[in-house]
Amino acid sequence: MVDLSTSIGGVPLSTCIYNASGPRTGSSAAMAKIAASRSGCVLAKSATVSSQTGNDQPRTWHEENGKASLNSEGLPNNGIDYYIDSKTISETLGDSNKPYMVSISGKTLVDNLLMLGKISNVMKADPSIKIAGVELNLACPNIVGKPTIGYDFDQMEDVLKQVTSLPCFKGSAMFPLGIKMPPYFDRPHFEHAASILNKYKSCISYVASINTIGNALAIDSVAEMPCIRAKGGFAGLSGPAVKYTALANVKQMRELLDESIDVVGVGGVANGIDAFEMILCGASAVQVGTCHWTEGPSCFDRMCSELEGIMREKGYNSIDDFRGKLKEWSKEGAALSRSAKLATKSIGDGGVSTAKQGTDSNSILIAVLFAVIAILLADKFNLMEL
Ligand code: RRO
Fold first, then answer.
1. Omega within 30 of 0 (cis) for the link into 182
2. I need a labelling partner for 115 at 20 to 30 A (CA). Which of 170, 220, 266, 328 fits?
3. Could you tell me if 357 and 270 lie in one domain?
4. Is the CB of residue 39 below 6 angstroms from any atom belonging to ligand 1?
């Protein structure tokens, strides 16, 4: 029996695959569809203090082959009060008892402190409110005039220091806190970011790596202009193109973070193999953003059954059987992989040659039939004797 369950920051999830904050998470109607799927959790859209409409359209773009997407949404959302309202939460969850988490992305530190205060007040006032965790987004690349906090280490440290000094994190925290991080590309940056996160390990339950790769640019070569309107076209890159950067970030973060901080892998996950690879790199759970955006919430059901199939084939019963167990490169491993590829290829070639053989024997049969018809006709008209 294959078990996809996991936990992040002590919150149990029935499956290790769930939605990233962003696409299809703005309203309770959209989130209810996630709750009805096999997603292990429902994570709401990043909220600001007040509702806002976001950047001018067009603000999203998908490459034709589905390998890359860009967005410059600019945080359109219904405001924090909506996402922590008991009506929103009950409309989202319905009968489901899966965890519901909120995401915050304040435009200033004061905004983030204010939103965390609102969340704890709501939970104190009504203990039946089901907010299982809060993800603090330090990585939105699309706010005009605002740098990505996770790239400004002094600012990031100040934010974490002040956030974790709030009364809701004193003693035993009121809710688990996750931090959404931008991608890093250089070992000293990974080390610096992880050392800051580790300083606040008593309050940080998980780190979600990665947000989109900021300031990418897609160009409409016919019109000779950017495909996206805001910020001169510079926007967050996502989709399969970012998976390799995301895997590296998950692996580096898992190596550098204190083991009490879980790592959630996000970036370019589109199938069960992608989720499997994230877990091999050390992810305790996997979030899906762009694929959820383009395919809809049925992607969670598909990916869960694909991951179950991979685990069954490999003889793994739970994700702990392979989590963080990426092996070192070896000649034996390469040989194993080569022979697996050859076996797949020869099955494929077998298929092709059977088909080819079939075509050849059909041609022979047709030729024989023509010959028989020709002989019969010749016989009928006494042509044989000429
Ligand atoms: O709303 C956005 O433009 C946005 C956000 Br908050 C984010 O965290 N990441 C992203 O790619 N877009």
1. no
2. 266
3. no
4. no
